[in-house]
Amino acid sequence: MVHEEEVIGKAYDSRLMKRLLKYAKPYWKTFVISILLLMILTAIDLARPYLVKVAIDDYIFTNPLVSFELGAEELNNYPGVEFRGKYYVKEKYLPESYKDYPRYLIESYDEGYFLVPVNFAGESIPLSRADYLTFRQLDIDGLTKLAIIFVLIVFFGFGLNYIQVYLLHKTGQKIIYNLREEIFSHLQKMSLSFLIKTQ
């Protein structure tokens, strides 16, 4: 038991590591590239849940819609939907100065879809299925773009991961080959009597 603990305690030998590092030194560029690839892969891993968050918060869950009268100059600056003489823009696209404008939420009930007032007293506006899809078209377009970006990121990450693993494995095999070649050359220089004694 004591012997096993001593072996475990000596598992890391700094002098041995220094001797081994000289075999890795010629391939330092490959290791730098592998580290850079690892950093990019980490960023990709963090980007995937962020894209899911954006999809849920900005496109799947309905955001309040700010109502404008048609003809307002500010309408040219923001994407929105024209419906029954008014223009509706998502709250997230607007600056804080528009906080007092009428707001609506799209709600789904057994009777169908409705535009429900949020910050003022008023009647809910019924929506047909076509109207509902018109209001959600910007969300559908946004989700489509996010899905494409997500898939591209997954494939890009897969490709980078393959390259990193390939580079490390290939470099490792080269280091092992050089080490074996050096050992073999060293043994060839030993005297015949030494080789006989060590059989």
Estimate the helix proportion, in percent.
Answer: 55-70%
**What's the Cα radius of gyration?**
33 Å
Low-confidence stretches: none
- Beta-strand percentage? 15-25%
Q: Could you state the oligomeric state of the chains shown?
A: single chain
**How many helices in DSSP terms?**
5
The shape, in one word, is rod-shaped
Spatial arrangement of strands, main beta sheet = 2-3-1-4-5-6
The topology string of helices and strands comes to HHHEEEEEEHH
Give the tally of β-strands.
6
Distance between the ends: 31 Å
Question: The biggest beta sheet, please?
Answer: 6 strands, antiparallel
Structural class: alpha+beta
Output mean pLDDT.
Answer: 84
Give a short summary of the structure.
By secondary structure, the protein is α+β, with helices and mostly antiparallel strands.
